Amino acid sequence: MEKFKSQINLIEIEIDKYINSLGDNSIYDSVKYFLKLPSKRVRPLFTLLTNALYNNDYSFAIPAALSNEMFHNFTLLHDDIMDSSKKRRGFDTVHEKWNVNQAILSGDSMLIMATKFLDFYESKIQKDLLKLFNSTALEVCEGQQLDMEFENKIDIDFDDYIDMITKKTSVLIASSVKMGGIINELDKDELNCLYDIGLNLGIAFQIQDDYLDLFGDEKIIGKKVGLDVINNKKTALHHLFVNQASKTELSKYQDYMLLKNHDEKVEKIKYLFSNNNTDKSLKNLVEDYSNKADSIIQKLTPEFDKRPNLILLSEFLLKRNY
Questions:
Q1: Are 253 and 272 a contacting pair, CB within 8 Å?
Q2: What's the rounded Cα separation, in Å, for the pair 200 and 149?
Q3: In this structure, are residues 219 and 162 in contact, taking their beta carbons and an 8 Å threshold?
Q4: What is the span of the domain harbouring residue 63?
C-alpha cells in the first residue's frame, strides 16, 4: 500500500480529527477504540481514487469516504457480536473489552455518524448518495442474515453463496467506488461501470478472505485461523471442494465436519482442501473476478487518466496475505 501512503494518511488524519471532535459520553470510548484499530482503509481509499479520476481535489471526497468507512466499521462491530468473536485485527473486540450492550450502542452510533458525513454535499448530490447508502445498507443486512442461515442449511449451492457475499461484502465496496463518481455528478453509464467494478472486486476480495481464513498466518491476519471451518460456514472453499471432490473425499469431509476438537477439525479439512487443489481453484476464481473488474476499468472515460491506480489497488488487495 506504499503507493497510496499519502491518501491513507489523509484518511487517518481526518479520522483522528473526527475522533477528537466526539464528546465525553462513554459511548464514544468504544467508538474511538474501534476506529483506531489497524486497518487498510480499503473502502475510503476506493472512494478517493475514484474521485481522482474526475477531480484533482482529494478533500472533496473525504466526507463520502469517511461515510463508507464508518458504515463498514459499524457492520464489523455488530458482526463480532453475532459471531462471538474475541479478536478483531489482533485486538479485543468491543463486546469483549466492554460488554454487548456497549457494543450494540456503539455500532448504532456509527451508523448514524455514517449518514451525517453526507451532509457536506449539496442537496442533489446528497440525495443520490443517501439513496445509494440506504439501498447498500439494506443489502448488507440481507447478506448477513443469509450468512447466518447458511450455517444450518445443507442445500446451498455456489450461486447462493455468490449472492450472499455480494450482499454482505461486495455491495459496500461497489458503493464506495460509485460514491466517488456520484459526488462528481457523472452520467448514468459511467456510474454503472464504477459500480460493476466495485461489485467484481468485492466478490474477489471476499473469496480471498475465505482463503486467508483457512490458509492465512494467524499472526498476520490477527485472528484464529479456521473460524469459518469451525462455524461450518459454506465458503468458496467449501463449494469448490464439493464440486470437484471424489466420493471418498466427500465422505471424509462429512466426517471431519462432525469433529468436536476444533484444532483437529481445521487441520484435517485444510489438508483435504490442499490435497484436492481446492486452494488453487480458489485463486483462479479470484483472478477471474479481478480480470472482469480490470476490463470494465478500461471502459471508463476519466478526465484524469488515473485508472492504473485502481488496478494497482485491486492487485494488491487480491494478492494480500492479511
A1: yes
A2: 24
A3: no
A4: 2-318
Angle subtended at Cα 50 by Cα 44 and Cα 52, rounded to the nearest 5 degrees:
105
Q: How far apart are CA 56 and CA 61, in angstroms?
A: 10
Three cell numbers written together for 144: 448477513
Q: pLDDT tens track of the chain, all 322 residues?
A: 778 999 999 999 999 999 999 999 999 999 999 999 999 999 999 999 999 999 999 999 999 999 999 999 999 999 999 988 888 888 999 999 999 999 999 999 999 999 999 999 999 999 999 999 999 999 999 999 999 898 888 888 999 999 999 999 999 999 999 999 999 999 999 999 999 999 999 999 999 999 999 999 888 887 789 989 998 889 999 999 999 999 999 999 999 999 999 999 999 999 999 999 999 999 999 999 999 999 999 999 999 999 999 999 988 888 877 7
User: Which CATH number characterizes residue 13's domain?
Assistant: 1.10.600.10
Crossing angle for the helix pair 236-244 and 188-215, to the nearest 10 degrees: 80
Domains identified in the chain, total number: 1
All three cell numbers of 274, joined, read: 490442499
What is the rounded CA–CA span in Å between residue 6 and residue 259?
Answer: 48
End-to-end Cα distance, the chain = 12
Please tell me whether residue 299 adopts helix, strand or coil conformation. Answer: coil
| CA dihedral (162, 193, 205, 138) positive or negative | negative
Nearest to 170 by CA among 204, 129, 221: 204
Distances, alpha carbon 12 to alpha carbons 33, 41, 69, 197, 263, in Å: 14, 9, 11, 25, 37
* Predicted structure pTM score: 0.93
Give all strands (DSSP E) within 180-301, no chain letters: none
- Residues present in the chain in total: 322
Burial class (CB in 10 A: 0-12, 13-18, 19+), 312: middle
